[in-house]
Structure formats: C-alpha cells, structure tokens
Amino acid sequence: MNARLLASLALLASGCVNTVAEAGTSGPATQSAAEADATATPVATNIESATMPSVALAAAPHVTSMHEVVLDRDGKSALTLDVTGGVRLWTSFDADAVPWVLPVEEPLWMSLAATESGFLAAFIDTTGGAHVARIEVTKDGARWVTAFDLPPIDPMFEVHVLGGGTRILALGVDHRVRLWDAHGKVLAELDEHGVIPWQLRVGQDAKGKTHAAVVQFAPVRMQRLEVSDDSLALVGEPQTLAIDQSPNRNDIGMSSDGRYATAMQKPLPKKGRFEIEVVDLRDGTRRMLVAESDTRFRPRVHPLADEIIAETGSGRALRLPLDAAVPWEPGSDRTLLTPVVAEAVSYDGSDEFSLMHTTTSGGVHAIAWGDALRVQSIDGQSRKVVQRSSLAAHAVGLSPTGTTVAWGTADEIILESVDGTGEVRRLAAMGGTPRLLAFAGDDHLVTMNDKGKVQLREIDTDTVLDTVSMPVVWGIERTGWRPDDTGGSVVLASSRPSEPLQVLTVEAGKLGSLQTVNPSERTAWPEGGKPRGRESSDWMASLGHELGALQLRPVEVVGTAPTATGEHSVVVQKHRSEWTSSDVHLTMIDTERNARVWVRKAQGLHDTSWSRDGQRFAYVDRAGGHVCDGATGESILDQRWAPRVSPPNDAP
Amino acid sequence: MHGRTWAGSVVGLLLVAGAVGGAQAHDYSASRDLGVLSPTHARSGAVGIPTDAPHVGHRGGTVVLDEHGLLVAERNAAAVIRADRDGAPVASLDFSGALGELVTDGGALAFVADRAGNRLVRLDTSDSGRLQEDTSVTVAEPYGLGLSPNGATIYVTSVADHRLVAIDTKTMKEAWSVELRAEPRGLAVSADGTRATVGFLSSGALAEVFLDTQGETVRWHALDPRDHVKVEMEFDDWSDEKVPVATISEARSRFSVPTDQGRRHARNVFSVAYVGHGQVVAPHQVATPQMKRVPSRGMQDSYGGGPEEVPPIDHRLAVVSPREAGQAKIQVSELQHVHQPRAMAYDAKRDRLYVAGYGDDDIVGISDVSLPSAYSAWRMHRRMDTGPSACGADGMVVDGGTLWVHCELSRKLIRVRPDQLKLDDKPWHTESAVSVGPELAASKRPESVERGAELFRRGESNQISDSGTMACASCHPEGRQDGLSWRLGGAILQTPMLAGRVGGTEPYKWGGMDPTLNASFKHTIERLGGSSLSRSQRDDLAAYVQWLPTATRPTVASAAAVKRGKGLFEGTLECSNCHSGEAMADGNQYPFDAWGLEETDTPSLQGLAHTAPYYHDGSAVDLWALVTDKGSVHEMADFSELTSAQAHDLVAYLETL
C-alpha cells in the first residue's frame, strides 16, 4: 500500500470523505480536508521541524547560459535556470544584482512567491518528486530551509506557490489536485471520479487574488477551479477549446484574472496569421481574435486581464485588446475574419530561440536567455537588464603571494583581488591575443602577445617601460614564466619543432637579453613544454618523474607548469581516446615524493600560472578563470564573468 | 541551440562524455552546475586514497569474501556455495528457489536473502568446509542486503513489499521498516552507518534513507536527465539526402510541445555502492522510450520510434555526492561496452571501481572513482561467450590483487588479475589474465530455460536488436518491466510484466496480434531491428519466460479490505468476466477507445502491485488513478458508483493479485 493511499485512508478515518460526483454531473464539489480535520495526515514527508535541513546560500551568477525564468506573482523576483541545471534566485533586477545559488539541480518545474520573511520556492525534479523550501533573506545573507519534500512515489506534474507563499497548489501525475500549506499539510484535494486534470492554469489579478483553472484533454477543455484558503472546488462548466497542436501551455491560456480561456491556432505554418479563441469561463461566451505576425513562428501568447500579448519572435509583440475580439460560433468559417490592427511593443532579446522561454507576471515581461536576464514592463517602456560578459581571458598571472590575479583578454588586462575584497583594476590591452601574463615582483607585469611582443609594464601607472619582440616561427607553441629574485625569465617555444627555445630575462625594471636554449638543455626549461616527438614517459622521466608511479596512464602528458622552486609541478594531461575533446586534467605532483597531490579538470586550457611562493595556482580555460589552493586544489576563485559590463538601466 | 550530435560534436550542454561509437567512456565531466555550493567533501580535487572507505559488509552481492574464502549465491542452482581461492566449490547449502544477495562482515557474520522462501537467513560459516543455516526471519521477497558498520543491524530490501527493512542481527527481529517504491533491489550502507541508499528497477530515483531516523527521513535523488533527445531531419552532404540526426538538447520550455517526446529515464539500478568521500555510485541504463517517430528501412515500428541510428538505450554510471541541506550533486558518465551494468566491486585501496555488464560480460575499471578526475584505467573486453559457457556477470568482489567475477549463467567464478591488463588490450590479450573456475553447482533449470536465459540477457547482439543496443532484459529486467511506456508504431504501449504472465495467456502483445509466444518473439525482434533468432532459439526464450516465477504478492495489510475488494471485483464491477482463470485473462480482445490500438487484449493481472503504471499506455499512474477513472480507458468497467472506501478496498484486492 503506498503512502498516498495511507494518507487518503487517514482522511477517511478522520471523517473527511472525498466527495465523489455523481456520474454525468458537473456540479461544484468542494473537497476540504481541513474543514473536517485539521490534523489530517499530510502526504508530504519531512514535515517541517527544528531539524529540517538548512544551508546558508552564496551569491553568484550562473556559471553558464540561462534559458528559463519564472517570476513571482508580483513580477518582483525570479528563479532562473541555466543549461547545466543550476538554479538562482533573483531578489532584485538591478544592474548589479547577483542572484543566490540554490541547492537544486535540473528541476523540471519551478515556482516562487515572496513571503513576509523571504520567499517560498517549489520545484519538481526529473522523476516527479516535489521539493519545497523557504528562502530567508536578511541583510546578512540568505538561507535555504527545506520545508517539505514529496517523494517520486507520488509524482507531480505542477506545483504553484500562490501569492504570499502560504499556499501551494499542486497537480499530481495521478491527476489529483491538492492544496498544501507552506509546511506540507494537505488542506484540500480534488479527486473526482472521471475528472482528469492534465494541466493547471494559475493567475493573480490586480488585487492579488488567485485564479485557477484545470485543463482536461480529449477533448481539450478548461474549467474554473476556485481556490480558497483551505478548499478547492470546480466551478461552472468545462469549456471546450479548439487547438491545432498537442495540448500545451502556450496555446491554451487563461487570463490573469481567471475570466477567459484562450486557445490559439496557427493554421498555416509558413504564414503569419494566427487566431485566438477567447472563451468566457463563466458563461461560455466565445469570441475570436485574429492577427498577423511579422514572422512565421508560432506566437508566444500571454493572456492578461484585458489584452493578449502575442510575441512574434522578431523582438516585437502584438498587444491585442480583448475588446477587439469578435463574437464567434464554433464551426464558423475562421478564414472570413479579418486580422485586427494591433499596437506593437518591443521586447529586447525576444527572438525565435527565446520565444517559448519568455514569461509575464505582475505586469512585467521577463526573458532569461544566454548571459542576460531582461525584465521589462509589459508596455516595453521600462527595462532592466542584468547582463554579464564572459571572462574571455587567454593569459593569467598570479602576484608573488597569489593575492592578486591578472586576467589577460584581447581588450584589457584585469587585476582582481583573490582574497574577496572585490577590488578590480583595469589596465590597457597588450595588443593582439595575450599569450603570457606574469608578475615580475609586486609592481610590474610582463606581457606577451601572439606576435611575440613582450612588454614590461608598471602596474601603478599602467606605463609600458620596455618592449622586446621575441622571434616566433610558425606561431607560438607554448610560453612560460620562471620568476626569480630580480624578476624572472620569459620562455617561448615556437611552433616549428626544430626551433630552439627562446628565453628573455627580466630584471631591475627592464627587459634583458634574449637567449637561445641549446636543445640538450631544453629539459632545464620545462616551462617550454614537451619537445616534439618525445613520448610522455621519456619526457617526464627526463624531468625526474616516472609516469607509472604517478598513475598518470593512460593519458597523454601535454605540458607541465612547475612552481618557482620546482618542488611541485602541475602536469597537463589529455586522455588518448579523447582526441576530439579539448578537456584536460591538471594534476599537481609533488616532485620530491613523485606523488600526485590533486587533480582538476579544465576545458580548453589557455594558460596557467603559479604564485611565486607556490601557494596558489591559476589557470584560464573556456569556462573562465580559476584560482585554487596550490596545496589542495580547492577552489579559491572561479570567475566566469568579466567585471560587469552593464547596459544602462531605466528604472521602471 | 544547446546540444550535441550523437556523433560527438560538442555544442553546448554535454552531460556525459564519450560519444556513441567512440572509444572508452570514462569522463566525469563537470556536468551540472558547479555553483558555489560545493560538495562537502574532497571531491573538489585532492588526490589520495579516500580514508572513509566503506566497510566490507556495506553492500551485498552474489559473491562475497570472508575469512575462509568466497561465498556465492547460485541463483539458478538455488544454493549458497563456499568456494576456495581457486574458484572451486568446497561446500554447499541448498534453498528452495531463487536467491537475492549475500552479505558478510568479512568475518563470521553472513546472511543470504532467500528470495523465494521469503526469509532472511543467517548462515553459520564458521567451518570453512561446511555451510549451514543458523536462523532466519520472515521478509517478503528479500533481495538487497547491507550491514551496519558494527554488524548489529542488517538492512534488507523487500521486493514484494517495496520496503527497506532493518533487522537486528543478534535477535533476528525486525527493528523498523520504511516503504519506498516498487522494484527495490540493491542497497548500500554508508561508512559512517548513517545512511542507506537503495536502487530500483522501475524508477529513476535513488532513495537515501537516513538510518538514525529509522526511515522517517528519506531523500530521493533523481537520476533521470533533464535534457532530451531531439530528432530532426538534416541535409547530409555525403548522401545528398535528408537524414535523421539526433541531438541531446536541453529540456523543452514548459510552454512548448510535446513534453514527453524525447524524455529520458534512468532505470535498472540493480546495485549501488559507496566509494570514497561518502559518495554513492549507481550503474544504470537510460531509456528514451518516446522519440519523434522516424520510420525507416521498412520497419513498421521500432522501440522508441526514433531513427535506427539513435539507440533508445544507453548505459551510465552516476556518482552521487552528498552536500549540504540534504541535497546531492550527481555526475554521470556513459558506460560504453558495458551492457546492462549490474555487478560492481570497489577496490578501496586503489580507489578503483569495477563495473561489469550482465549483457556482454565486459568489465571496466574506473580509477580515481572518488575524484573528479576519474577515468577508465582498465577494461576487460572478452569475446562474449554464448550458449552454455556464457557468463552473465552478476557479481564481483576484490580480493587483494584479484578480481573475482561471478557468472550467473555458467555458475562459475572467473579470476581476473587486473594488473596484467591495460585499457588498450584487445580481447585476445585478456586470456592470460583470466582463469575460469569449475562449475560451482548444477542448475536446477531445464537446459532450454538456461539457453533462453542466455538469449534473454544478451546485449551487443545483432541477432536481437539493431547494433545490439537492446536486449530483452533491457526493458524486462528479471523478466519484469521497466515502468515505462514506449512508442511502438502509432501507439504508446506500456512495458508488460512477463514473469508469471505468459504461460497460457495467448495471444500476446497489447493488441493480441501474436498468437503464440514464438511468434511474439519474432515480432519483437523485428521491432528491435535484430536479424532474427531461429525458431528453436525462440522456443528457448519461450521456455525461459514461462519458467519465470510469478511476482510475489505484497503482505496484506487488511484481509477484510481485500475480501471486500474481491467481492467488488467479482460482483458489482464484473471485472472477473474478462480477468478470469488462473492468469486472470480471458484471451479476448476488446475495442476500447485506445489510441493506436484497434483492440486491446485482456492482460493478465498477476503481480499487479508491481506493474505500475497501468493500462496499455501507462496512463493510470497507480491503481488509485485506475479505479477513480483517471486513465485513458473508460469503457472497461464502471467505477463511477464506487464510494471512496470501496475504491480503497478494490485497490487493496488488486494489490494481492
């Protein structure tokens, strides 16, 4: 006997008998558990207690592209989802907003409401399990507190946190509709014989009142669902809706005030014409709106209280006033209807890709797509954009004690404090693609671009003190930096295999002489990478490492990055079988013990750097910039984003 | 926009590494959001052998190691065998029928799940030359076993009751139990004894039971991927024609249609294990039962409906890492060349996990399994034996530098010396590192059943399916069902339970179009794209599925409710008019308004409690949904007059079938 059945039996035992409608009738059937029994056994597990799991939340942007957004009912906060399944809570949409990272991955469904002390959020995982949590936000930070979970034994289609966050409306895969309080207690359920809700529609009117409807299939029909504090009731007659696709949440809509159902059809895929039937859920009155899109894409339909917003995928949306809808009898010839002339509004970022990912609530329209979260008023007049540019760094350097990292991009050099002070400085670009970035002491930076041009720069004044061009033949294979007490040495390996290593010394505030390394002495400069044609094992052995002992097989070693003292080295490895992949493993080895210490993974590695004291290690790859503890490999800073580049915002 | 082709080019979201048709699969990519909430353990980078290795008895298996040697659960011989370190039998203890797992603490404490006998049996293994029963306790169809670190409690999964049961090992009394969900199998207990994780055949979730709450707190970790398989026709420059291309794309927006098409589901978690840093590993298969339909090469229908080039099933390993707030981070990697991964062994001293394919007998060794840098260090790719010498790896255990592999089908132990094999070794190089022991016990099954069992599990066989992607056991593990509904031609059809349902219940298939089992197998293999089996091979398959035991009924909670429900079933509702006889099926077909089927064959109701979802299309998620008329079939019976109490009685009865 499953948990749900036990719970239902508990309802029965407590005198709360589910109303089973008479066959063929469709009258209202209120099913309030709470009326009869305030202590009914809740279905949800882990009912809130003092021991409910909680965790302090950190604030950080998404680590990759966003593609879903869910607004709260007032349109003032949002949950966003990225393509790797990460979820963030946005408590504001200001340009400098940084969202909270939630301990949720890959939800199929998200819902959010603001509460007196923060937020209540609900999620459905990929197996249908529901997870509800309070998120308490104070000036000191944010905390996730699990409110209750519903196991996948009782899988859910939808969970909606209602306005105020005190009630949750849920639709199970078993087609039962349930109303929970914020602690997981079942207040009411709708479980009528033969009533098979497949979807819900939930809206909120201007006064904050919740409106809901159930959608049934075969035939598609919508019926009002009255939701009060502790009861659910079907109201009125189900209204059939004609659509030309499988039932979905775009073509079948409900106005935010719960008065109308909308059913969209787009009869000709290559034409812009679309038709929206507007059905009064109270009396079944039908009207029709016909409009012409400026694209062939299926419009994204947002039914509001007095108008329908239809986004076309061109960045425009048609505002279709309900008043323009004409009376309509099912079966009439739709082709005789003339498209209405509609006002258009522009929504930034609304294109064919983001179209089915946009949402409206509380008078705002939102898109979370790529790196940008765009929240605009329905009329498109006021806009807020939170957008971050990727940190496209190709070179990295760590200061001698690792407290500052320098990211080298094609456009600038960014100096960032690693110790959390948030201090960021920008220096002028070095010109071309960066290939080397190194601290010569605390006060100077050495840079090299893809043409081999080396510059010595004073950090305080951002002044170039000296420039030398190193010879590059067929391009640059590898660069390296070896610091010493007076400055250090730049190492350059050209792409032509026979070309010897070049070394340029830096000392006393100027660039020194250029030297060519004799091939027989090349192993003395492991910063220059592996000589062509040498097997990993030979090369590693020449550096004093034995691959077998290090358990580095079956991977190919493609480079090393030794510390200044040579006591430790990061070995860059690539799986032989992954020749098409740019993924590599970075393994830090203790060269004295000939033992591995830690391993990290990088995607499309560009550059690495050690702090001179060997305490910190940094690298840049396709995913951004990273600084980690040299002894443990633990992350200290993972920076996917460049310091903010924000478009101007117009406060609504 | 975000996706990759099956040919392996990476565009965006890539949950797993290693493309279909590629070489080894071994990559533990940083698949999901790394975020800021990092795992609370050392999976973030430090290398080193984990110091929190699980205890010997943290999970059971068909082969375990104690102080005297090896103990083997010979399921087909219905016996527990003591074997020496040459893999030869030393002693035997007979049982009445099927067995589940064995477990030992490495010393004198050993238990076996007497699955057919509904008992957990404590064994007396003190004598290295003799095995005997010590005592036992009733557990409904026990399967998975795991001991607490101190050996005071044994945890057992009950297949029949869908529960995890805790039993005091000294008194052999049940301490507590918790309901989980249908088809629980293997379990593992964490090194600190605070958690037990359970895998399931027909669910994409793992249950993490917090033992200190006596099962009151259970966290479920979803293994189903959010991304989906998207099939599109694209112009191919080489062939100068449009070809179907499948990509793995991010899940559709909730505003898009259709939502089920391309959804992927994790299934068949036969075993779970703890490795270092409190992490759980769970090999499983991922099925895509409903792809966009692309009929091809004259096939009327195919499993999943997608193009031939797109396998509807692949195999993966999930690594579940605990983190704060009871949540978990899950990383997955494809397990290529391991068909139906089922057996596992963890070499804690090397942080290496071995995973074996029940369907193809291949084994991979994954080094640094507790680290983000985990990689396939080793693979044993033998020529797959068929017929009587086939293995069917269902258990493994590490014994110092030796890996013991137990073969369910041949009832032998294979000794493997992993250090003598490299990842790149060809199949014929493996023989020197492998020695096969003698048969441990004679099977109690007829020869035809043995042959059929081998065919049923056989993966990587073009005879069975296109490119050998699917085996019969992929969707019917143990002859049961995966809990999914598959696109087949124009219909969506639920995977039926075979065990206990195919003897004398002709015709077969949901539409009743196959008059005999032999014809039904021929039809199924056509759908699978296999090159076909001979008639005698199909007869062997028929012998096997007819031999499969009927699923055990759950323990009855209320005999009175069952009696009342039976009254409704046979009386008012007239269900027994069609669901009649021993198999509860009349062999007739009825013209229900069932999408994709002209007529629906009356299915057997044997083992109904274990076969959710219900109806031909799986439209009723559970029996309650069925009896409240929330499925897609409305003409079968008139449930509208049932009171809620009667509906509960009816469900109680149906669960006893």
Q: What do we call the CATH homologous superfamily of the domain at 393-639 in chain A?
A: Tricorn protease N-terminal domain
Briefly, what CATH class of the domain at 393-639 in chain A? Mainly Beta
For the termini of chain A, the CA-CA separation is 54 Å
Terminal Cα separation of chain B, in Å? Answer: 49 Å
Can you count the beta strands of chain B? 36
Largest sheet of chain A, order of strands side by side? 1-9-8-7-6
Number of helices of chain B: 7
Low-pLDDT segments, ≥5 res of chain A = 1-50, 645-652
Q: The biggest beta sheet of chain A, please?
A: 5 strands, antiparallel
The level-1 CATH class of the domain at 447-547 in chain B: Mainly Alpha
Specify the structural class of chain B: mainly beta
- Taking all Cα atoms into account, the compactness measure Rg of chain A is 31 Å
| CATH architecture classification name of the domain at 393-639 in chain A | 6 Propeller
